[in-house]
Structure formats: C-alpha cells, structure tokens
C-alpha cells in the first residue's frame, strides 16, 4: 500500500492507495508546533481505525507547501512506518514540462494537480484549486505547464473583511440564491461567493482566449469548488482528490 500526504497551509490530507484504488482519506490541521510523535501516533490511529496495519504500508510520498512542518512529518514517517518518504519536487519525472521562470519557486501543489489532470483527463486543461489561495493553472496541448493565476480564497477574503473592518460580522460561506439581498450578513455572503464566481468565469475565459485553447477542459478541486459551481455549469470535471491522485502518479513514475 502507498501512503500519500498532501500538506497544505490549513490542513494535511492523508490517503492510502492499494495500487490505483484510494481506500480512505483523513485530514488534520497543519499546525507548525506538532512533534514527530504526535504526527506518527495520529497516522497510526488513522490507519488502524480503517483496519490497515502500519506494516502494510510499503511506500510514502509527500507533497508540501509548508516547509516548517517537514522535519516533524518526515521523521514521523521514518519512525512509525519505517519508510523513507519520497518528497515531490520539480526535478522529478513529472510527465509534463514546467515552462516558467525558476520552476523551483512553483508551489508543489500546483504542478501535482497539473500532473493528475493531464494523466486522468487529458490536455489541454485549466486546473483550478480552491483553497487558502485559489490557483488557476494551464497545461497546453504539448503537456507544458505554461502559466497560472493566484487569487485570494473565499475564506481568506471573509477572514480579512472580518478582521480589518470594525462593524462587519464573521459570516458562514454559502452559495447565494440571489445577489439581491437586504441585510449585512447576506450582502457579505453574496459578495464574497458571487465575487469569486465572477472571477473564476472571467479568468477561465481569458486563459482560453489568450492561449488559444478553446477546447481546454476545466478541472476543479478543493473543498470550496462546489460552492462556486454547485450545478456543474462552470467546470467540466470536479475531482476532490486531484492532488492525492497526482502524488500517486508521481510515486509510480519515480519509485523505480
């Protein structure tokens, strides 16, 4: 079995694969202060709770955008699983070409998503990940990661408005039934979510036009993607485990 770990700014997502089948996923807060023992015991509890022995895990790959957690996380994998984890990086055999200035500065999550989208859904594609930040990335017909956008995520926008404004309340994020609202809470909810919907549609259209990729598939992932497109009118594909799939694919390409 293969353990894949996607380390994001807010959460770490763990998944276990048996060959290409994703058996289960778990989530924990990323928090910088965690020790290797805390992480190792948590991994053990995740696996044992699903009836999976640590000894059944034969490989591990980590994709991380949080350098400060890596010492504890990699030591946890070594100590509790007895495995040297593979660390996803831009110098691996990716199956794509990163056409960018200084590829090492490109977030691991971004090219891992591109790898998965290209492998699973084909190219060209616009790949969107809705998280702490929203990323819009493009793989062209020649399997090149050519460009991308980064915008503020919905929760980030909501938190910033709450902390930087004296009288604006903290609100639950919900898909607006209408932008015609008459109270402050609904105004914030509609503005934050509808603003991201408009932003998403415009960026997709601009990328397709400027890169002459009118047939590019739009592949979305991230927990808030469904709030942006609940009816499936904007995205061609919604894959909630796109990054985990990308890590699995990278492990299979590079483990030999």
Structure keywords:
5-stranded mixed β-sheet; 256 residues; 24% strand; 6-stranded mixed β-sheet; 7 helices; 2 domains; Nucleotidyltransferase, domain 5; alpha/beta; globular
Account of the 3D structure:
- This protein is of the alpha/beta class.
- The protein folds into 2 domains: 2-87, 2-Layer Sandwich (Nucleotidyltransferase, domain 5); 97-247, ATPase, nucleotide binding domain (Nucleotidyltransferase, domain 5, 2-Layer Sandwich), CATH 3.30.420.
- It is 37% helix and 24% strand.
- The protein is built from 7 helices and 11 strands.
- Strands 6-9-8-7-10-11 form a 6-stranded mixed β-sheet, with helices on both faces.
- Helix 1 crosses helix 2 (70-81) and helix 3 crosses helix 7.
- The longest helix is centred in the last third of the chain and has 27 residues, at 184-210.
Spell out the blueprint of helices and strands.
Blueprint lengths: L1 E6 L3 E8 L2 E9 L6 H14 L9 E6 L5 H12 L4 E2 L9 E2 L9 H14 L3 E6 L2 E7 L4 E9 L1 H11 L19 H27 L6 E5 L3 H4 L8 E2 L3 H13 L2
Parallel strand pairs: 1-4, 4-5, 6-9, 7-10, 10-11
Antiparallel strand pairs: 1-2, 2-3, 7-8, 8-9
Helix pairs in contact: 1-2, 3-7
């Amino acid at each position: 079995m293969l353990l894949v770990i996607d380390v994001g700014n807010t959460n770490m997502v763990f998944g276990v694969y048996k060959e290409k089948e994703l058996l289960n996923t778990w989530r924990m807060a990323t928090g910088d202060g965690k020790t290797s023992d805390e992480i190792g015991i948590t991994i053990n509890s995740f696996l044992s709770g699903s009836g999976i022995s640590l000894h059944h895990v034969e490989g591990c790959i980590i994709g991380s955008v949080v350098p400060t957690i890596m010492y504890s996380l990699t030591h946890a994998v070594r100590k509790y699983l007895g495995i040297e984890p593979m660390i996803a990086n831009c110098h691996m055999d990716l199956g794509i070409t990163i056409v960018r200035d200084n590829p090492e500065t490109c977030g691991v999550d971004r090219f891992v998503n591109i790898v998965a989208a290209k492998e699973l859904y084909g190219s060209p594609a616009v790949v969107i990940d809705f998280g702490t930040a929203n990323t819009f990335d493009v793989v062209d017909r020649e399997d090149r990661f050519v460009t991308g956008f980064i915008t503020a995520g919905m929760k980030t926008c909501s938190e910033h408005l709450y902390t930087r404004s004296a009288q604006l309340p903290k609100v639950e994020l919900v898909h607006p039934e209408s932008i015609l609202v008459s109270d402050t809470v609904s105004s914030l909810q509609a503005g934050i979510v509808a603003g991201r919907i408009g932003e998403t549609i415009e960026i997709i259209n601009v990328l397709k036009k400027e890169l002459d990729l009118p047939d590019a598939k739009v592949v979305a992932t991230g927990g808030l993607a469904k709030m942006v497109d609940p009816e499936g009118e904007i995205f061609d594909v919604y894959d909630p485990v796109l990054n985990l799939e990308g890590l699995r694919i990278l492990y299979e390409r590079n483990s030999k």
